[in-house]
Amino acid sequence: MTKDPTAGYGTPGAVALHAVTAFGVTLAEALEATGLDGACALLTSPSAYQVARVVGHTCVTRDGPADLAAVYEARVFAPDVELRWMESASASAVVLAEDEELLPGSFGDRLDPLPAVRTIEARYLVWGAVQDAADGWATLSSARVGVRDVPALTAVRHGRVRLAAREYVAVDPEHGNAYVAEERLLGFEPYQASEREVEGAA
Known about the structure:
Elements: E1 11-23, H1 27-34, E2 40-44, E3 49-55, E4 58-61, E5 64-65, E6 73-77, E7 81-86, E8 92-97, E9 109-110, E10 114-125, E11 129-134, E12 137-142, E13 146-151, E14 160-171, E15 178-191, H2 195-200
């Protein structure tokens, strides 16, 4: 009997991650094509790293509209879909989803589906404690990174925030080794540390 190399990791069950890509599209065009209104966005520009929310074919921070013309890399994500965009000689975008029907029809280049034997729900603790929450935004503050606002946390009044993600575990058909082949961001979520975790924190 062959041992399952993924035993003990994540949630068993085969799932396929579908993807479609396009070239020569602006970030605004990619946002409009995917229809990710309300999704979270991580925007990287030469002078800033912003956490934003998608509104139509643009992104807004708590302070107002983001300057998409200055952005050279973006990850935009909702629970079911993620858009990745990068500025290059020919700006490229890729959209990932488990449900193939959620992929934008205007993106003509389909990639081969990624077959995964398991998925792992991952969580990343965001720097800072919640200082305030209003109008769908939570303000996080820490001595190391200062103040940052993150979207989609209307119920959070205190505690911490985590970034949720899903990892897709594939198996090498030649050697049988299991590995995380891809990861898709899902969204921000509230997190309450236990007393033991707080006491043990550095």
